[in-house]
Each structure stands twice: as C-alpha cells, then as structure tokens.
Amino acid sequence: MFFCVRFYFFLDFLNDLVYNFIVGEFSVYIKERAFFAIILSVVEVYRRETLGLLLGYRGENKFFVEYAIPSQTAEREFSWTEPKMRAVARMTKIIENMSIEIIGDYHSHTDFRGDRGRAIPSGEDVADMRSGNVHIIVAVNPKLKSKKWRQNNDGTISGTISDYHIRISATTLIGEYKYKRVRIVCPSATGLST
Q1: Angle made by CA atoms 79, 161, 27, in degrees to the nearest 5
Q2: pLDDT tens digit string along 101-143?
Q3: Cβ–Cβ contacts within 10 Å for residue 59, how many?
Q4: Is this prediction's pTM over 0.90?
Q5: pLDDT of 129-139, one tens digit each?
Q6: Fold of 27-190
C-alpha cells in the first residue's frame, strides 16, 4: 500500500514536470467576495456536494475570479452534484449580456463514509472539464485542530474556519483527459499577494 501511494506521488511529480515544461505555470486570482461565496456555499450544504459558476476574466495562463455564483437548483448528494441544465442556460444567457464571462466552475468534495474529502479531480470531474476554463475543487472535512490559512507548495490553499478544515485546488484542461494544476492566489485568505 505504502509503495503504491509513493509511486502515484512520483507519477504526479513527473506529470507536473512535463506539464510545467510544455505549458508553463497557470495562476488563478480569487477576489475576496468570490472566496467568501465559495466557502459559505460549501459549508451551507456540508456533507453534500455544492456546485457553482466562476465569473471573471482570462489572461495569458491566468484567471481572475471576480464572483462565485452557487447553483441553488443543482441536484446534490454526498458524492456528486448535477446542475439543472435549464437553470444554467438561463444564467448563461443573462451573463452573455454582461461585461463579465463564465471562466469556470467550482464544486466540493466532503468526507464520506470515513474517507476524507480530497481536493483532487475524480475521473468524472476531468471528463466534465472544459478547455480554457478553470475548475476549482474545495475539500471540506471536520476540523481536527486549528490551522492558519496558507499557500501550499502544490499551489493549493488551506486552513480552518469554524468546525471545518478546507483545502482549495484549481485545475485547467490541457489535453484530452489531461489537466494541469493552477496555482491559487487569494490574499484575502492567505495574506499573500504573489
């Protein structure tokens, strides 16, 4: 078991080296209002997945998240969530008339049946990714001890709020069923500006 875990970490490390060489580093800048909306929406439905849209702007290898809009009508369970397509179509039509665009989505992974929620995409998550967008996953677990919010070496951010430990990751699609981690910059969470 330990060998398998180490082997998969080694494969992830090799993939990151190759992707960084080919594509360069991606970053997503999350504004305070978007960060709060994401956190509150995942805690609101804790133990069930949440889903929402990310609104903002794209730059070269950069995403700027101005707003996070939770999907209130999504069907949700413990390990999956699915949007109501008619509701998404209505929202998309309105957003097309605004000076902002949909740049991706976010959803949560929570602890389920003794397994901790992890901020990594599942196979279904990767299959649902859209090229040119950023996809944020928020892992929500019970807090074991208090931790200050921080930027992690893998580009994620994590910390505790109230009774929850939260880790946020971001990815973007770079090929068929291939994704790249996106470094999160969120000064309102971590206090870091770069």
Answers
A1: 75
A2: 999 999 999 987 778 999 999 988 898 899 999 999 999 999 9
A3: 10
A4: no
A5: 999 999 999 99
A6: Cytidine Deaminase; domain 2 (3.40.140)
Contacts of 104 (CB under 8 A, 6+ apart): 53, 54, 63, 65, 130, 133, 134, 135, 136, 172
Among all chains, which residue has been given the structure tokens 């494969």? 11
- 26-45 in b/e burial notation, b at 16+ Cβ within 10 A? bbbbbbeebbebbbebbbeb
Q: How many CB atoms lie within 10 A of CB 154?
A: 15
Amino acid at 3: F
Helix/strand/coil for 74: coil
For the chain, the helix, strand and coil percentages under 3-state DSSP, each to the nearest 5: 30, 40, 35
Intervals of the chain under pLDDT 70:
1-24, 72-85, 87-91, 192-194
E strand or H helix that includes residue 34:
helix 32-44
Cβ(59)–Cβ(66) below 8 Å: no
